[in-house]
Design a protein that fits this description.
The chain is an alpha+beta fold. It has a three-stranded antiparallel beta sheet with strand order 1-2-3, with no helix packed on it. Strand 2 and strand 3 form a beta hairpin. 49% of the residues lie in helices and 16% in strands. The protein is rod-shaped and about 100 Å long. It is built from two helices and three strands. The model has no long low-confidence stretch (mean pLDDT 84).
């Protein structure tokens, strides 16, 4: 139907030709079909294990890539933004929700003290 040759009997099945020649009873046919089914199940299990192993390896590679990228970003940030010392003038952005339309977007402050990477700032 629709341009395909009709499949009839065992000769047109997907069973290997060598095994079809040796079949004499239905029991032999059932054994062959069962052995092929078991083989397919084993190969399916092997495929699932390989897929899971590949997934674990891909996740590990992705994690390592993210860690490398994070280290690069930290290094770049440390070079670009050096730690402030007492007496330095710094610019602080004012969030949009905390200011009116005519208020400045940034304010200037002086670093008064540094305590465990926390800064005490002073403004007029």
């Amino acid at each position: 139907m629709f341009g395909n040759v009709a499949k009839r009997g065992l000769a047109t099945s997907s069973l290997p030709r060598e095994q079809i020649k040796d079949i004499e009873t239905e029991e032999q046919l059932e054994q062959i079909i069962q052995s092929i089914g078991e083989y397919l199940q084993e190969s399916e299990v092997d495929h699932k294990l390989k897929k899971k192993k590949n997934m674990i390896q891909n996740r590990a590679a992705a994690r390592m890539g993210l860690e490398i990228q994070a280290e690069r970003m930290l290094r770049s940030s440390r070079q670009k933004f050096t730690p402030a010392k007492p007496g330095d003038t710094v610019r602080i952005r004012v969030p949009d929700v905390d200011r009116l339309l005519m208020d400045p977007q940034n304010i200037l402050a002086v670093v008064v003290a540094v305590d465990n990477e926390f800064y005490t700032l002073g403004t007029k």
